[in-house]
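Sample intake sheet
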Amino acid sequence: MKRHLHSFDYDKQDPSLLLTPPMSITLVIHIILMATTFLFIFPLSIIRVLQKQTNLYLLGTGFALFHIGYFAGHRVYGYKLSSFHVHNQPYVFYLVYVLNIFGICYKTTKSDFLWRAHRFLLGLFVIVPLLQLGSGMTASLGICQPSEVNNCMAHFGMGFAFIAIALLGMFTKYQQDALLGTILFFGLLNTIVTHRWGTKWSGRDYQHTVSGVFWFFGGVLGLIYRFQKVINPFPYIVLFVEGIQMIFHDQNSTYAWVVHIMFGSTVLFASSIRLAGLYAKIDTQLLVDTLWILCGIFFMGGNSDAIFKLKNSDFDPGSYVMLLASGGFAILIYIQFMNYLINGRIEYQRLQSFSSEATLDDLEEGKFEIKNEI
């Protein structure tokens, strides 16, 4: 197997990675139009569909801006055409067309099959453009080069997992299952694929393998107690210990060390608060989910290409951490904005700290029973 995902020497990296292509006006137009279309116009259109209201004007506006942004993006020069963002763009293009065709056909036929297919495509439409926007961000910044794609996949994969766990905690009752699944998955991943087989292991090989074994065993314990009528602390114990490990995670760059310390400290803080809230019967949902989002942002920001570029710039580590945290807050603002558009008010749909049936009214009435909850 190739080298360790995190075995990265920042002093031996290709200096050409420092050369980020210039930000042309057509690229700026492409970014603004695509972000506006996929983060605001199309989501608002989907909301109106689910509320059984007309979305023709929104859909037409989004369709027009999407095409302008698409062709503006293809006129940008200086960016490598081998990027994942460029290769994936046609599939997003086809998805937009197929989704609209299914919607029009359903309106004319009222077919139950077309409605189910349309809803399935809507689900894809929530996920795929976000991945495309993320890959576009990496392409415009010149990070996640082919030589470091595994490192980027590891950092962005776990980062998105933390953000998804936060979203599930805000609006659904499935955060426990998602957290356990994430722990089990990354436990197996770290144990099996993030070290070198058949060669002498380095200290980092041992670090990630031991971490993977710990995550897997902790995930199995959490899965066992998931079906018992007791408070299940094991997922948060796993993350608590992982936070400590990340704080002391050896790095060969001060820049990377600072980012990993912030990630580890945030994981440690979030898991501690969650454990305390469970046993003290205190609502910690907003604080903990905010910290999960920050964890995801910090971990994504620790990818090797980004650290290498910043290490050779005048941007200090403290400012970089604050910039990443600002991105986390921007995500929260966007989430609550969409929540307000859907529900007409800004609040969580449930209180994960209490029972799975708890609502805001239950909290006000003093119903604090804990039922098989993380």
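Comment: The longest helix spans residues 112-141. Residues 5 and 350 are 38 Å apart (CA to CA).
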